[in-house]
Write a structure and sequence with these properties.
With about 250 residues, the chain is of the alpha/beta class. The protein has nine helices and eleven strands. The longest helix is centred in the middle third of the chain and has 14 residues.
Length: about 250
């Protein structure tokens, strides 16, 4: 039978209460409810240098009919932010081991940076990260990308056009040999496409909310043209294979 393609709405960069900059309202239940209210089909939980809140949101999403991918927003040694996404809990756990091994032992100061706790669906605290999650790993951008590829995840530099921690602003260029599934931008327009046509020819250009508060969820998102809502199809859409494609959007 012929394939039946359709558009799916994705926000693949959302923080929770675990991120020191995340609002205290960013709990699993509230994130899932807000995502569904904004008619999102798939979201990703991407706290700074930690995956520990993701499993709870993934489980809740399954119950509510929302696909939730687990991952993290990594701060590399170059102070470049990038996102890693995984389908399975075992991949997520292996990546957490990697993060734990390479996050420096700089302690968080909650009064200055904010609390770093993860919670269950009832908003009860399950644990607290003592190390400062904003710190840069002792790993280069290419090393993080390679680790994600080894674990069969998805990888993309985050908000590459942002003045702070964006790839284009930190390095001034996209490394020629960088293995990335996409490039995330904050402000996408025809002018951006004209200025960076060489990048859009090589990479899928996507947009996500980078939400730290509930009202930011789905403010920026990516439309994915796919046959079904699966991790495999998302990979195909980002790579532009078999008729799949990705399109950055904003409300």
């Amino acid at each position: 039978m012929p394939e039946v393609m359709q558009w799916f709405r994705a926000d693949l960069h959302i923080h929770t209460v675990l991120s020191p900059c995340g609002d205290l309202e960013m709990s699993p239940e509230r994130i899932v409810e807000e995502a569904l209210r904004n008619e999102l089909d798939v979201i990703a939980i991407t706290d700074h240098n930690s995956t520990k809140q993701a499993p709870e949101v993934m489980a809740l999403g399954r119950e509510k009919g929302l696909l939730v991918l687990g991952g993290a927003e990594i701060n590399t040694q170059e102070e470049v932010h990038c996102v890693a996404l995984f389908e399975e809990l075992v991949q997520l756990a292996n990546f957490q081991d990697y993060l734990d091994a390479h996050l420096p032992g700089i302690l968080n100061k909650p009064d200055l940076f904010g609390h770093q706790v993860w919670v269950n669906r009832n908003e009860e605290i399950m644990g607290e990260e003592q190390r400062l999650l904003w710190s840069a790993l002792d790993q280069h951008l290419e090393e993080v990308s390679e680790k994600v590829r080894q674990l069969r995840g998805l990888f993309f530099p985050a908000h590459i056009d942002r003045p702070v921690n964006g790839l284009l602003r930190q390095l001034g260029f996209v490394p020629e040999q960088l293995q990335a599934d996409a490039l995330e931008v904050c402000q996408y327009s025809s002018e951006w496409e004209d200025d960076y046509s060489d990048l859009s020819e090589k990479f899928a250009i996507i947009s996500n909310s980078d939400a730290h508060t509930l009202d930011q969820i789905g403010q920026r998102y990516t439309m994915l043209w796919m046959e079904d809502l699966t991790f495999c199809e998302i990979r195909l859409a980002l790579s532009g294979q078999k008729g799949r494609k990705a399109k950055p959007m904003s409300r």
